[in-house]
User: Fold this.
Amino acid sequence: MNDFTWVDLSTFDLAKARAFYERVLGWSYLDAGGGYSVSMAGWVEAAGLYPMPEFFRKIKMPSFWMSYIEVADIDATVAKAEALGAEIELREDNAFGRIALIRDPLGAGFTVNQNEAMKSSRGDDHGMWCWSELVISDLSKAETFYSNLFGWSFTAGNQDQHMIHHADGQAVGSVQVAANEIKGDKEYWAVCFTVQDLAQAAQTIEQAGGQVVDQYETSDGQVLIARDDQGATFYLTAG
Assistant:
């Protein structure tokens, strides 16, 4: 519990998004109903893609990737998040079970879900989701919020990156403190996917109408920051 289990993309043009990630990550797709597509990295479910809901269109949300965290009690989690200064942007019961979209005190959004069946496979094979990283400008506020909400601990890593762990030491994700010139003016949870060749992926992104924003070194190797052809930010690392 209190760990990332799924990621999906909310996009304005689903067909265009599917074509982009098919080129960049080699995905194929399954129709899960209701306009929701499940991407496949080989025979493994990697992520979801779906048309931007009207609620998000009304508030002029850009296309975005979302990370999901499984919790044991969604009502208790939502109440605690609000007490810690978060904003609850959406609550609903759907095909995934009970979910709530939460914006932390810095504005970074994540979704909590109460459904053990909602899981993606993380891994090092091409096209698979491997990591979620909080990209922010103020580490202290994030550390206070997430340590109180989920019991996570934060340890200094390479340069401006910090690692997040459960109480038992198991890795959860990471935090990257970045300037607005790199991350833009928003705080967000970034999703990272594995590719075989970062240089080739960067070239393909540009050819497919996306944008390579930056590249930086971690203890595990190079990470590439990119935006797809509808502006959604995602990260890539070499497997």
Summary: The mean pLDDT is 90. Helices lie at 14-25, 54-58, 74-83, 139-150, 180-183, 198-207.
